[in-house]
Write a structure and sequence with these properties.
This protein is of the alpha/beta class. It is built from six helices and six strands. α1 packs parallel to α6.
Length: about 180
Amino acid sequence: MKKILLVSASPRLNSNSEALAKAFARGAQEAGHETELISLRGKTVNFCRGCFVCQEKQRCVIRDDADAICQKALNADVLAFATPIYYYEMSGQLKTLLDRLNPLFPSDYAFRDVYLLTSAAEDEAYVPERAVSGVEGWIACFERARLAGTVFMGGVTAAGENPEHPALDRAYRMGKEI
């Protein structure tokens, strides 16, 4: 059994990217894994100050919701990030959180596999490329981690717009195959 931490970075209730995270979690749970889904909606995640105290203390000096999420990420075997695509990039909420996960860099983090689940109004295959690249850049700082998979749900705008979208099944199967 693996501990899987899923982070939904959409500011919208019932968002399409969070639907992907829930499908992924359902598959992982059915495979016998422990999952926790955290939504950044309503959370306080301030910008990194660049002070690098976290490199020494392995804990951020800013006391907000990012600190607790970072502690959960430290002990998770698998991380999955779900984000809407805004202007062909991950949401600002996810980017800010990734910056705030800097205390993990010098730590003995448990995660090895990282997944990215994305959604966007546009449906061309290239739409998530910059978001994937951004997450790959973050992963590159963690030599024991790898991007284990991605799922893209294109052609959706309104929250919960397409409950039958094939990307939901792909996310479910990806979670189940962990």
